[in-house]
Write a structure and sequence with these properties.
3 helices; mainly alpha
């Protein structure tokens, strides 16, 4: 039903099929994603760092601080964003 799924290759198509079947057999909805607690905690830590860096920049902009202070905060923001940019969530084999 709806638009057919697109896959980068036959192997990805097969993995998606296996994942859908495993979810169905476990009685889970197809859109459920299981993540290890440590991985979720790591992602939340990185998002918190990003949020803090954004708040620091917003505060400095509102208070009209020096160029050096703005540059330091922007560098922190870029650093936080860069680590999130390298994050990629991928499926893992069951078991």
């Amino acid at each position: 039903m709806g638009r057919p799924r697109l896959y980068c290759g036959q192997a990805c198509r097969q993995r998606a099929y296996e994942q859908r079947n495993a979810s169905t057999q476990a009685g889970l909805p197809g859109d459920v994603v299981l993540v290890k607690r440590a991985e979720l905690d790591g992602l939340q830590d990185r998002l918190y760092q990003l949020r803090c860096a954004i708040e620091d920049v917003q505060t400095l902009l509102a208070e009209r601080h020096t160029k050096a202070e703005l540059e330091r905060s922007l560098a922190d923001l870029v650093h936080s964003t860069g680590r999130l940019d390298k994050l990629w969530v991928s499926e893992r084999a069951a078991g």
